[in-house]
């Protein structure tokens, strides 16, 4: 991440606030994706960042040969997903409706299905590359992404603390 | 575990077996484990140790957690970039950071 900051020239005085912040964020994201390696979301993240030409050079520099690996198109296991989504939904809804009054169960499960569908859409929009995933794989990627996000936050907090402390000392 | 009970998916699983090789089937245990792991990550679950949540609740918690993490990264980016900007270029602190950036 520090390499990213350096390359983005963050310490240059000519930058606007917005530019500097974008550079910091870019470094953080690239570091996160690079550290994690190849997953659906890291590829999607890198692809999104690469859309801007000026980012490409920085990305190449930071990631080195990993950049090629992460941008190569990859065949994902999409064929088994539709079924797993149903199994997943059914298994979790069953746990939920079991606790309720049996007579109400049919209506509950219809509502639950609608909510699940709606919220799954939200999750897909939050997760890089999530649009193409279903069920089990969506949750698997989500788990991975959440863990990496937490690491990213931790890293940035430490960096901030270290800088602040050195400023005071 | 009796959590899932008898279920129709068995018919679907049979179809899955015919269409694909055995090792590619996703088992119920795997799904359960995944859901538990995800739930244990969520802050609310950790605080109150709720029993197994419903699918929609899990999704809702996950989405809001991801959003809050995104906000935090955004905030930290702001603060980091402010910090870098306000550092006097001749101060010893700036020199430390610069040497960190160089290494």
From TrEMBL, chain B:
Record carries keyword Cell wall biogenesis/degradation: no
Assigned keywords, A-Z: Growth regulation, Transcription, Transcription regulation
UniProt key word Transcription: yes
One example of a Gene Ontology biological process annotation: regulation of DNA-templated transcription
InterPro entries in alphabetical order: bHLH_dom, HLH_DNA-bd_sf, PRE
Limits of the BHLH domain: 15-69
One term of GO molecular function: protein dimerization activity
UniProt xrefs under Pfam families: bHLH_ILI
Disordered: annotated span: 1-23
Family: Belongs to the bHLH protein family.
Name of the protein this chain belongs to: Transcription factor ILI5
Species this protein is from: Cocos nucifera (Coconut palm)
């Amino acid at each position: 991440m520090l390499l990213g900051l350096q390359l983005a020239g963050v310490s240059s005085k000519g930058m606007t606030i917005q530019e500097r912040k974008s550079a910091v964020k870019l470094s953080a994201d690239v570091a996160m994706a690079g550290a994690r390696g190849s997953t659906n979301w890291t590829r999607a993240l890198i692809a999104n960042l690469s859309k801007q030409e000026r980012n490409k050079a920085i990305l190449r520099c930071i990631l080195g040969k990993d950049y090629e690996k992460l941008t190569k198109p990859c065949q994902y296991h999409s064929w088994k997903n539709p079924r797993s989504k149903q199994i997943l939904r059914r298994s979790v809804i069953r746990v939920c409706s079991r606790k309720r009054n049996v007579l109400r169960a049919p209506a509950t499960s219809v509502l639950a299905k609608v909510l699940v569908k709606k919220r799954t859409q939200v999750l897909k929009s939050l997760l890089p590359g999530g649009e193409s995933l279903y069920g089990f794989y969506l949750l698997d990627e989500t788990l991975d992404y959440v863990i990496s996000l937490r690491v990213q936050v931790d890293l940035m907090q430490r960096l901030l603390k270290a800088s602040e402390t050195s400023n005071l000392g | 575990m009796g959590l899932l009970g008898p279920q129709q998916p068995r018919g679907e699983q049979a179809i899955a077996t015919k269409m694909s090789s055995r090792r590619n089937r996703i088992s119920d245990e795997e799904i359960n484990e995944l859901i538990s792991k995800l739930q244990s990550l969520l802050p609310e679950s950790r605080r109150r140790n709720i029993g197994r949540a419903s699918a929609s609740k899990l999704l809702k918690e996950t989405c809001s957690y991801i959003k809050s993490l995104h906000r935090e990264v955004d905030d930290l980016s702001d603060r980091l970039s402010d910090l870098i900007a306000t550092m006097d270029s001749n101060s010893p602190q700036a020199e430390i950071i610069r040497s960190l950036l160089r290494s």
